[in-house]
Amino acid sequence: MAGEGAEWWSGETVAVVTGANRGIGLEICWQLAGKELTVIMTARKPQEQLSSSAQQFLQEAAEMGRKKVIFHTLDTTQEQSVLDFVDWLKSLDWFVDILVNNAGVANPVIDWDFVKRNNIDTRTIVAHPTWTEGISEKYESAKHNIETNFYGTKRLTKALLPLLRPTSYKPRIVNVSSSYGLSCHLRDEELRQQLCDTMGLTEQKIDGVLAMFLDDVKSEKGMEKWPLKFPSYCISKIALNAYTRLLALELGDKACVNSVHPGYVTTDMTFGSGDFSPAEGAANLAHVALLPAGGPSGRNFLERKDADF
């Protein structure tokens, strides 16, 4: 077993990163590639439609002779796309050592005319814990948030479990979460206990909570028990954190599974506000992905600090 701080990875280590078209996802590809890992960057769009920064990354990687930086289209919300991706990995006889589940959306419904008319700072919209003026919740966007942030992540993770490389250092699953995914945002004690009771937790219980939430959004009733701000984004990440603990328990010594809040990062999702650059946020993810052998599993990290759920 590697000692404290020892590098357990090599050029043969395979890292899969979802949502790598821009922002934090693209930055963690840069950082893992910089450590000479084999990096599979994925995004919903085909390669020719990637952002200019993603195109630049692939071009520079090719120019530097990094043949182990590879792009593959992957939409985690589509079962066939996930199956095609897994089949492609199998065709190469590749195992996966690191899975960074970064793909995610927020999709808050914001009245930008109200925001502009009242000269409201975007930082207030994103970061103020109780500010909800000009922000609303719609069923379709709520459903899309949960499908992408939770079910998409779970779909890909489950599909890749048979391809996790069995090693002494254990493969790593890093679920990109948020400070909005802390259970304290739930305003109903029974719901908090249900999702925080790790030993009694099941996928069915998580699914039940999400179905209840969507029913309340659709009926526009019962919202007082859910998170006050960005409720669908919050509940999708709370569910993801719960699944992180559940999966860590199920896999035991077969893998390290952790969730990470990368920080308040300046991205499209935060409307250009933030305290950290995408590179700094990605470094927090890389830190957990590359923890020494024997590191924790089933934990939640706020940036690099081990924290409660």
Task: Explain what this protein looks like in three dimensions.
- This protein is of the alpha/beta class.
- It is built from 10 helices and 10 strands.
- The radius of gyration is 19 Å and the shape is globular.
- It has helices at residues 23-34, 52-63, 79-91, 112-117, 122-127, 139-160, 189-196, 203-219, 231-251, 278-289, and strands at 14-17, 38-43, 69-73, 98-101, 109-110, 135-136, 172-176, 256-261, 299-302, 305-307.
Helix content: 40-55%
Q: What is the number of E strands?
A: 10
The radius of gyration is 19 Å
Spans where pLDDT lies below 50 across 5 or more residues: none
The biggest sheet amounts to: 8 strands, mixed
What is the averaged pLDDT score?
94
Question: What is the number of helical segments per DSSP (H or I, 4+ residues)?
Answer: 10
Percentage of residues in strands: 5-15%
Structural class: alpha/beta
Query: What distance separates the N and C termini?
Result: 29 Å
Topology (SSEs and partners):
Layout: E1 14-17, H1 23-34, E2 38-43, H2 52-63, E3 69-73, H3 79-91, E4 98-101, E5 109-110, H4 112-117, H5 122-127, E6 135-136, H6 139-160, E7 172-176, H7 189-196, H8 203-219, H9 231-251, E8 256-261, H10 278-289, E9 299-302, E10 305-307
Parallel strand pairs: 1-2, 1-4, 2-3, 4-7, 7-8, 8-9
Antiparallel strand pairs: 5-6, 9-10
Helix pairs in contact: 1-10, 3-6, 6-8, 6-9, 8-9
